[in-house]
Amino acid sequence: MDNPAVLLLSEVYGTLKGGISAIYRRLGTILTNRVPDVWVSTAVLDATEDDKDEAKRDGVDLLLPTVHPGDDRTDPCLHWLTFDHRVKYPNLPSNVRSIVGHTNGTSRAACRIKQDRCPDARVVLFIDDIPEDTEQYKGDEEAIGIGKKEDSILKDAEQADVIFSVGDRTFDHFKNQFRAIPVNKRPRHMKFFPRPSKIFEDSDAEYTETETMVVLCIGRVAGVEKLKGFDLAVEALSIVAQKMRVKLRVRGVDKDDIQVTKAILEHCKSANLQITFLPFGTQKDICKDMLQSHLVLMPSRAEPFGLVGLEAIAVGVPVLISDKSGLADLIIKFARRYHNCIVETDTGGDEQRNVGNWARCIERVLRHCEAEFETAANMKRELLSTRYWEESERQFIDICKTGVRKEPGSSSKLRPGRHMHQTVDPGRLKRPRPVAADMSTMTTFSSLGREESGDRKAPREPGTSSQLNSPDRRMCQTSGPSSPKRPRLVAAGMNVKTSHNSLGYEEENEGRKETIEDLIKDNYVLLWKRLQVEKLIPYFIQKRLLDFPDKQVIMSNATTPGRAEALLQLLSDRATCTPEVFVEILKEGDHQNIVDELKKK
Known about the structure:
By secondary structure, the chain is an alpha/beta fold. The chain has three domains: 191 residues, Glycogen Phosphorylase B (Rossmann fold); 187 residues, Rossmann fold; 176 residues, Death Domain, Fas (Orthogonal Bundle). An eight-stranded mixed sheet has the order 3-2-1-4-5-6-7-14, sandwiched between helices. Strands 10-9-8-11-12-13 form a six-stranded parallel sheet, with helices on both faces.
């Protein structure tokens, strides 16, 4: 198979377990729809017949492990993907360009498969957990291991090319943590806002008056009852059950897990409260649960994001979510006027205050349930109308279509845009390598952005013309360093067509119009040293070539050359600005001196 491929690694396909699998399913679907020439495969440990049918409908190649006769190791585990992938998954796509995994899950497998079988692939990792926040609620043993889990994520990040942190809360945490990674190993770090799956968006919950109200909690429960706040939910509903008929359904509990069910039932203080435990389910199961509920609770004491709460919002059922969640941040950011669904949850130890607060909020919603369904429908419509997820998905698609390079001695080359954490070190751009005339040497870039052809070269400092690294380019150089284009002397009688470039001098017309990338490359050192970016940005914004988030990212660089570097990289990558407009902006932005220097070349 010659088409470039993206390989996603997940334990399961599009089911409740882990949450990240639902994100993977969405990403695989948008890749197949928007980039049809990219082959999308998802390697999983196990899959149901429904999973296989869904993957087929999504256009995703589902890769299942091979189990050989006589091998008694039949219980799926991550070691199959990490250490036994050659045997368990012998038929990976032949031209894998990106391997996608997630920390504390398939991240090690992604790095190992790259090392063993796909050396030219880039590693893209998702982070959806903050161990420092969540592990303290999983018991003493887990709390002691917080430092090890945080360090494990940093180790994975060092080997990755791109990190997507799910939500503001996770992004902010690791933006700080990644400062401990050496600059030359630091990945490109980006924020990711997930979109609810189509099955939830296509559903519309409706209110029906019943004698008994159904409240739903969803999530993996074993070992995390306190983290997920199931004790708060049960104790709060015990109070409510004394005033009205209500039942609780808990989706995510194995019926045979007596220890978990006992731990939850211990918090039930009312004989009037009926609790029903349901096992892990597919998205179809969860959606049905939501449509049959009057209220969905997400009472977590620490929730880096909270995808299940977002899915409930997409269905249009009333929700109450903890303020200690990334989903609460999303609502404040994109649908602030619906903040009443956010419940203050004290993590300082005042449990009775928490229980009372949740009980009051639950009772309020259930007593005015019809009106709350109308509010939930409006919230769904307004939140989805913002299309808050589009920038995240565009960035992911760009990564899979193009490439990412880390430069030795500097941080990752970043395309300025929304929700990015960027540190740009100027002057680390490579120039083409001279090659002997009778040689044809291919210079490529590894996933870490280093040249791979013989000896590894140290980064160069500015001072001569340099080659800008466009993210989607592999370079094949068979001549010496490029030089600025100049008027060409032509012998009498030669019929060579010429044209005038943006600076007014003649150049040979080789069937290609000068691009902004040509202009920047040919004059990079001059522009890098002398551009006063703060004077030019207003004109780029006015001409719709930049937007305000671009400005914020560019100006976040501490030095003047660093800002110039970021601006030039952006203009080169997007290729929406013409050389003529660039020169016009230089003139308008009090850079006539640079225009004059360009004309002299």
